[in-house]
Structures are given as C-alpha cells and as structure tokens.
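Translate structure to sequence.
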C-alpha cells in the first residue's frame, strides 16, 4: 500500500510534520465541540506519528487506538507518553486494520494528504468500516489545491476532492475554514466533521 519509507523518514529526521506539540486547532475544537467527548468515546487516530494529538485527547476518551505505519514513530510515542494507559499504540497498516464498527470517533490530522492519492478511496472505506453507525470523522485537512499533481507528501488536496471522496459514505456536518494552526500553515487548513452514513 505504501510507496514511501516512513520509518526511514523518522530515522533520518525528515519529519517536517513533527512540530513537538498537538495541532493548535485541537484545543479550539475540543472547547467548541464538547458534546463529542461526552461519555468518553472510543477514538481511532490513524497516522498518529509521535502521538502529540492522541496524548492531548487522552483525558477525554475512554480508549484511543493510535496507529502508524512507521515502527519508529510508535516507539517514540510510547517513550514520550508512557503514563497514558488508555492509549493503545499500534504499528500497522490502516488498510488492513480489522476492528469493524468499534469506534465512536476518528481523528484525522495529515494522514489523508500523506497517503498515495490512488489509495484515498481505500482510506475512506477503512474509516467507514472502523466507525460505529453514526460515528464521526473529525479531521484537520491540509488543503493544497495548487500543489503539483503527483508530488508529495503532502499530495494535492482540495475541498472538491474531499467532497468527492467522502460525500458518498459520509454526511458533511460542519466545515470550519482557517482554524488555529502552526506557523506557516495559515490559510491552508480546514476542520471537517463527517458523519458515517448507514
């Protein structure tokens, strides 16, 4: 499924997405959408990297599965957050992860834009399978509509593409453009909330 050696990227320090902190939009999102975290949901976080977002979400969730294809990333996440017992750190492939309809929420942050574009439909199917009926995909999507086709990661992503890929299996509940973000990413991101269709 993957044409990029993500372990090598982490070993060589070629990780411009690693900012040493959770995404700045995450505290904003939690404060503005507290109902999503009532009852301590089960949450799945694909492409978790060093686990910054998962660690920030841990107090609000009953259980988090934080998955990354790169063993190096998961090893570092475990070392950074050894006390967070409700996070299950897993090295593995999202496209073969088999826990159907287990999760209330999925947290997406730069995973969709990082995968090879030919696997985007498979990403949507995987997320749809993992979510319970009516479950929510909460995502910070990196919009790069002018990025050269085929170059990445991150690969080109536009709102039209997001609507195309997710619109059949998910209902768009909310689109929040230009949330708080890292320095240098201003005006390039949006938060989208998608509900799984039956």
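Result:
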């Amino acid at each position: 499924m993957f044409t990029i050696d993500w372990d090598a990227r982490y070993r060589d320090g070629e990780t411009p997405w690693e900012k040493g902190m959770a995404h700045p939009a995450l505290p904003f999102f939690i404060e503005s959408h507290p109902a999503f975290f009532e009852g301590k949901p089960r949450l799945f976080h694909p492409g978790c990297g060093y686990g910054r977002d998962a660690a920030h979400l841990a107090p609000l969730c009953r259980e988090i599965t934080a998955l990354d294809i790169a063993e190096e990333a998961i090893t570092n996440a475990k070392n950074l957050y050894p006390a967070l017992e409700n996070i299950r750190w897993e090295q593995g492939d999202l496209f073969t992860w088999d826990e159907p309809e287990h999760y209330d929420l999925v947290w997406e942050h730069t995973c969709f834009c990082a995968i090879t574009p030919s696997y985007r439909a498979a990403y949507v199917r995987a997320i749809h399978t993992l979510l319970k009926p009516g479950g929510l995909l909460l995502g910070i999507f990196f919009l790069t509509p002018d990025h050269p086709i085929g170059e990445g990661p991150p690969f080109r992503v536009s709102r039209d593409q997001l609507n195309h890929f997710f619109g059949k299996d998910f209902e768009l509940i909310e689109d929040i453009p230009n949330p708080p973000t890292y320095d240098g990413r201003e005006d390039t991101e949006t938060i989208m909330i998608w509900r799984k269709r039956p």
